[in-house]
Amino acid sequence: MKIDVQFFSWFRDATGCAEISEELPEGATVRQLMERVHGRFPKLAQAARSTLVAVDFEYASGSQRLRAGNKVALFPPVQGG
């Protein structure tokens, strides 16, 4: 199944793109998607524990199952100063 992944803030800079598509097996979870994304973009793995993930505009946990056509948005930890 095809899942679209959008990157925000410094994630966009780290990946060099705003969006990618990933092919995953049916029934894959957010965690499996993140493993794939971290393999493709190792810099994002540094923020793995604090990355905010939304699936179709709703925050999601790693165990959430994905469906074909889902849009997943990845947000880095909050920065301030």
Helix content: 25-40%
* N-to-C order of helices and strands: EHEHHEEE
> How would the global form be characterised?
globular
Please give the count of helices.
3
Under the CATH scheme, which class?
A: Alpha Beta
Mean pLDDT, rounded to whole units? 95
Sketch the major β-sheet. 5 strands, mixed
State the CATH topology.
Ubiquitin-like (UB roll)
Helix/strand structural class: alpha+beta
Largest beta sheet: strand ordering: 2-1-5-3-4
Tell me which CATH architecture applies here: Roll
Q: Quick one: how many beta strands? A: 5
Please state the CA-atom Rg, rounded to the nearest Å: 12 Å
The name of the CATH superfamily reads Beta-grasp domain
Oligomer: single chain
Instruction: List unreliable stretches of 5+ residues.
Output: none
Portion in strands: 25-35%
Total number of distinct structural domains: 1
Distance between the termini: 40 Å
What does this structure look like?
The chain is α+β, with helices and mostly antiparallel strands and 81 residues long. It contains 3 helices and 5 strands, in the order βαβααβββ. The chain has a single domain (2-75), classed as Ubiquitin-like (UB roll) (Roll). Helices cover 26% and strands 27% of the residues. It has a 5-stranded mixed beta sheet with strand order 2-1-5-3-4.
Keywords:
81 residues, alpha+beta, globular
Secondary structure blueprint with pairings:
Elements: E1 2-7, H1 10-15, E2 19-23, H2 30-40, H3 42-45, E3 52-55, E4 58-59, E5 71-75
Parallel strand pairs: 1-5
Antiparallel strand pairs: 1-2, 3-4, 3-5
